[in-house]
Amino acid sequence: MTAPKDQNIKSQPAKRAERFMNRLKEAQEYAAAAMATSQQLMEDHANRSRNPALAFRVGDKLAWVSSKYRITKVVSPHVMELDVPSGIHPRFHVQLLRKASDDPLPSQTIDDSQPPPVFPKSESPDSKNTEPEQYVDRILRAERVRRGRKWVRRVLVKWKGFVEPTWEDRVNLEANKALDDLEKIYGKGDAVGENEGARQGPYRASHRKRNGRQM
After folding, report:
1. Quick one: what percent of the chain has pLDDT higher than 90?
2. pLDDT (0 to 100) of residue 22
3. What number of other Cβ atoms are within 10 A of residue 179's Cβ?
4. Euclidean distance between CA atoms 161 and 120, whole angstroms
5. CA–CA distance, 74 with 122 (Å, rounded to integer)
6. Better pLDDT: 154 or 202
7. Rounded to an integer, what distance in angstroms lies between the CA atom of residue 158 and that of residue 189?
């Protein structure tokens, strides 16, 4: 028994549509496989010329620009989060970082914990100032950095009883003798001091004069 002629006519478009969908599916699968192969080849080529990422851990000290910071979070093998000042994005690619020079090699790991700070009180017996204050050993460097929308002057302070120096706002140390000592050598400018990139010798202001007046 044969199907009616009109039923065969109606089934032909459905068969053509089915064949088209099958070919479309095959083409999509082929394109996906080709794309995956291409991505793998590109990744293999990049890995051949890429240095392997160093194994960093939380607490390691890294150098970024001319300062040292500690890792607060390992986001990925290639991205580290550092304890940089507020106003600076804290995550950096490892290619922008380097191991701090005073960090030991894995085979030379030592206990580098910070000792407690020294809080000497005023030596004057009749002094009314009984609040303890941290004792500054010396100030190593002065800089001006951008913090949010404004510029801030800061200094690198070496504290007595501490291994690592810290960056502090300069305004908080204006009355400190250590800042006077730094200014006697380098002047009252910024980007001066002992640290990497410091200007050697006394600081000279860059103001020019025209007709006897400062510009």
Report:
1. 0
2. 84
3. 20
4. 12
5. 43
6. 154
7. 19
SS3 call for 130:
coil
**CA neighbor of 154 nearest in space, from 22, 164, 165:** 165
Structure confidence by residue, pLDDT tens digits, 181-208: 888 888 888 888 775 443 333 333 333 3
Number of compact structural domains in the chain = 3
Spatial contact of 80 and 71, defined as CB atoms under 8 Å apart = yes
71 and 44 within one domain: no
Question: For residue 98, how far is the Cα from the chain centroid?
Answer: 11
What pLDDT does 8 receive? 56
> Quick check: is 116 in a domain?
no
Question: Using one digit for the tens of pLDDT, what is the confidence trace for 90-120?
Answer: 888 887 777 766 555 454 444 444 544 444 4
Which tokens hold the place of 18? 């089915």
Same domain, 33 and 67: no
Q: Which residues neighbour 13 within 8 Å (Cβ) at sequence distance 6 or greater?
A: none
Here the tokens at position 93 are 């690619």
Q: What angle do CA 52, 55, 60 make, to 5 degrees?
A: 140
- CA–CA separation, 184 and 198 (whole Å): 15
45 lies in which domain range? 13-50
Encoded tokens for 5: 């002629």
